[in-house]
Amino acid sequence: MANVLMILSGVDHWTGADGTRLPAGYWAEEFAVPHRKMTEAGIHVDLASPVGGKPTPDPDSLSTEGAGPRGPEFATYVDDHSDILGNPKPLSDVRSADYDATLLVGGHGPMEDLAHDPDMGRVLSDFEASGKIIAPLCHGPAGLLSANKPGGHWLFEGKTLTGFTNEEEEEHGSATFAPWLVENMLKARGAKIQSIEAWGVNIVEDGTMISGQNPQSSGALAGKLIDRLTAH
Question: Where do the domains of the chain lie, and which CATH numbers do they carry?
Fold first, then answer.
């Protein structure tokens, strides 16, 4: 049986460019859809967050207004899995040797904590060094920013990937609030970004990196991950 580590933000807010805070966290669809698909495929899934404790779903990701007609479905899935969501591993306790892949769940929360977390950087460095799959989704690629080589160069410089685009941030209405945009920061650090039209399903593969553009790409990302893991 393959083992996958899903990493979720541990914060309940997002600090804007003006210093104010908005409720945030992980995006429920990006946990619910991959988790369901992977467990149904017989893959063992563990959860982790920076300090352990129960991660907070972005309130918008639980409603029809914020997440579309399936919002309540994702809210129910989160409630039904409150036992595992209530006790994720602290990232400081994660050993990459225990897993075959990691999936970084999005939402604005990762911009607040995963992007700067030293244990996030250590875990990613270990996975990359071991040639294991790293699968960031939507705002999850913000977590990639935590990993650097000795000397300060970004670990994933030159990688081709995707993530939540500037266009999607603008259409979501959060671009003016944001202290920085995921697409801009990834490009500035040296990533090669491949995106499609806003809200389209887009998966980009580059070696052991499999990335998804947005919440709509959650199922496709999980499918690619399952295919890779079951092929071995």
Answer: 3-231 (3.40.50.880)
